[in-house]
């Protein structure tokens, strides 16, 4: 849409921008676009990432962490309160203090490296990400959801006994330690025990936990975008959350859009998304993308969390829309642009491209790749024959050691059914091949009522 792009160019062109992201390679598309609009850029990143870094000055903080969330937090600390050598490089680039910072979507700090963060989330928007609060929204809107208890950590075992399904309960922490995602503060507690271990893990990390029955079914999400003109609603997306085959835990590994939801499921999830988007707009003057995660059970979709930001599921559905999405999102949050929600929803539907977007951070350092194929029996196997390949698995550098991801041919993997069984098999194969030490992964069942 030419008018949208032209408006964005007038907002972002011919000025200075600091791009803050954990991996420098992630900033490359935005940096190239801004450069084409006459802007000057400097990148502040934790590490290079896997791929080609942008052709501009890059300053590395070399922050890290043992988990994805910890790595994100450490990186944000490194740009909110930068080391002297980092600050000197930024001040040299922008001596007049005119630059603004474009940070990753989870950012909430209004200032980084001594400059204002442009398009950052308001506090009242990010507050909805707290799992202790969001269930009240489902209740207010009449959205069916699982029973739950919000209790002090020491009281969680009692709540778990009351709420457990045949598979046990799922516990999640409050935001005592700040924003968290990717399932890192989520614990699957079996019905037969594990209470002491869970209480020990949460003690010191959380004041409260939400306890909920373990819901059997397909992890999935629904996304939307709130603008001044209305609410755009997108299509359901599969979430790649795997169960450790021995029942010891859960593992978030990305999202996929090969799955086609049944019509009644699609209608239910879209209706929920519209109601939530309208509520965010009316209550908090919300602007921009949001996502609702949950489980597709035999009784229908049951939401479990709200992400008031750009998340993976929304980003991949909008990736082929012919506008610079990250810049649009930030300008919308600033009130600098009002995107037509009907155009955005229609464009997302017309440009939707089936795909698998998975990744796993591991502590072992691996720099390698291999091709995979589906055998006649549907088993995922390694192959040297690229003609038979359904795609390749790649391991590259990350803040924790390595990042395992992949590039796959949707037609060979299969469009329609969930992608979880395929990706779980790929991860298991990669773990064996590279000796990653990951638990064996098992995909959740696909239950349709």
Total strand count, please?
A: 22
Please report the first level of CATH classification, the CATH class of the largest domain.
Alpha Beta
Q: Give the CA-based shape.
A: globular
Radius of gyration: 22 Å
User: How many separate structural domains?
Assistant: 3
Helix content: 25-40%
Largest beta-sheet details: 12 strands, antiparallel
- How far the N terminus sits from the C terminus, by CA atoms, comes to 40 Å
How many distinct helices?
14
CATH topology-level name of the largest domain: D-amino Acid Aminotransferase, Chain A, domain 1
Secondary-structure-based class equals alpha+beta
Key attributes of the depicted protein:
14 helices, D-amino Acid Aminotransferase, Chain A, domain 1, twelve-stranded antiparallel sheet, 449 residues, four-stranded parallel sheet, Dna Ligase, domain 1
Can you offer a commentary on this structure?
This protein is α+β, with helices and mostly antiparallel strands and 449 residues long. The protein has three domains: 2-120; 147-214, 2-Layer Sandwich (Dna Ligase, domain 1), CATH 3.30.1490; 215-449, D-amino Acid Aminotransferase, Chain A, domain 1 (2-Layer Sandwich). It has 14 helices and 22 strands.
What is the compact description of this entry?
The chain is 31% helix and 29% strand. By secondary structure, it is α+β, with helices and mostly antiparallel strands. A hairpin with a 5-residue loop joins strand 13 (237-244) and strand 14 (250-256).
């Amino acid at each position: 849409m030419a008018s949208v792009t032209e408006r964005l160019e007038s907002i972002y062109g011919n000025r200075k921008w600091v791009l803050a992201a954990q991996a420098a390679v992630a900033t490359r598309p935005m940096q190239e676009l801004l450069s084409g609009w006459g802007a000057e850029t400097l990148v502040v990143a934790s590490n290079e990432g896997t791929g080609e870094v942008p052709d501009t000055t890059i300053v590395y903080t070399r922050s890290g962490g043992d988990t994805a969330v910890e790595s994100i937090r450490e990186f944000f600390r490194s740009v909110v309160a930068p080391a002297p050598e980092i600050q000197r490089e930024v001040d040299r680039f922008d001596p007049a203090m005119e630059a603004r910072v474009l940070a990753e979507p989870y950012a909430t700090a209004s200032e980084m490296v001594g400059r204002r963060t442009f398009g950052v989330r308001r506090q009242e928007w990010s507050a909805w990400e707290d799992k202790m609060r969001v269930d009240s929204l489902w209740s207010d809107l009449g959205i069916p959801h699982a029973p739950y208890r919000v209790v002090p950590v020491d009281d969680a075992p009692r709540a778990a006994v009351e709420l457990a399904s045949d598979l046990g309960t799922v516990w999640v922490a409050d935001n005592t330690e700040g924003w968290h995602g990717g399932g890192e503060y989520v614990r699957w507690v079996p019905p037969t025990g594990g209470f002491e271990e869970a209480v020990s893990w949460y003690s010191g990390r959380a004041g409260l936990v939400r306890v909920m029955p373990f819901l059997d079914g397909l992890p999935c999400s629904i996304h939307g975008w709130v603008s001044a003109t209305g609410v755009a609603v997108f299509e359901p997306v599969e979430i790649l959350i795997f169960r450790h085959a021995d029942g010891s835990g859960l593992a978030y590994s990305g999202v996929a859009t090969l799955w086609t939801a049944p019509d009644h499921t699609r209608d239910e999830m879209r209706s929920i998304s519209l109601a939530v988007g309208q509520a965010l707009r009316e209550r908090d003057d919300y602007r921009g993308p949001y996502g609702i995660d949950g489980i597709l059970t035999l009784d229908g979709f049951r939401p479990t969390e709200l992400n008031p930001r750009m998340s993976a599921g929304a980003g991949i559905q909008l990736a082929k829309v012919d506008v610079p999405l990250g810049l649009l999102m930030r300008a919308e949050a600033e009130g600098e642009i009002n995107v037509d929600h009907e155009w955005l929803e229609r464009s997302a539907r017309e440009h939707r491209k089936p795909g698998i977007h998975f990744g796993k951070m591991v502590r072992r350092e691996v720099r390698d790749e291999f091709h995979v194929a589906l055998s006649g029996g549907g088993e995922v196997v390694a192959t040297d024959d690229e003609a038979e390949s359904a795609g390749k698995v790649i391991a590259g550098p990350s803040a924790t050691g390595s990042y395992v991801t992949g590039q796959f041919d949707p037609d060979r993997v299969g469009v329609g059914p969930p992608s979880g069984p395929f990706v779980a098999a790929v991860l298991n194969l990669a773990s064996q091949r590279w000796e990653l030490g990951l638990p064996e992964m098992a995909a959740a069942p696909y239950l349709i009522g």
